[in-house]
Amino acid sequence: ELKVEQNPLFLSMQEGKNYTIYCNYSTTSDRLYWYRQDPGKSLESLFVLLSNGAVKQEGRLMASLDTKARLSTLHITAAVHDLSATYFCAVGTSQHYYNNNDMRFGAGTRLTVKP
Amino acid sequence: DTGVSQDPRHKITKRGQNVTFRCDPISEHNRLYWYRQTLGQGPEFLTYFQNEAQLEKSRLLSDRFSAERPKGSFSTLEIQRTEQGDSAMYLCASSPQQWLKKQFFGPGTRLTVL
What we know:
B: seven-stranded mixed sheet, four-stranded antiparallel sheet
């Protein structure tokens, strides 16, 4: 059974600092998603990573995927308060891209950026 | 506003009652998904539609849950004989036809079963 582990689960950081959130998963996958969720709000899709070595960047966030290590990272550069939110990774393992049944979300990383 | 909308936003019900939620996706999106999220956890996939066809249901979905998308536009999720364990946020998302496009999530319906 696919297991998705994120760490850390809670992260408090100062504005201007860099940090990385890790997403490990237990079985072979070639598609991984990152989402952001603000308190009391719904999810916002950030990145879709589809191949080994894929790297995507938007603003202060950069996501990468290493399918051999079964690891994705979400790197935060020079954090600002507006990045405070919960970040989820989700992994799909089905043979077919259109199959959602085996997609699993991690428990989320709650990020707080302090001034 | 052309985002995904859900109704109601909050629902409180007594155990054993039936509830129905509605989702209106982004109009040009063919695919519609339902997820459930409990406090402190990531969302769990429940089911998804391509137009009016329900293509997939989670193996975890009990027979008390049913979803429809009769005209390929809005969708409803019904829970019969609700149990306290059904208390959660129910999220709807939609995406375009092409595979692997981003999913756009609605604000969710928070269900509390007393």
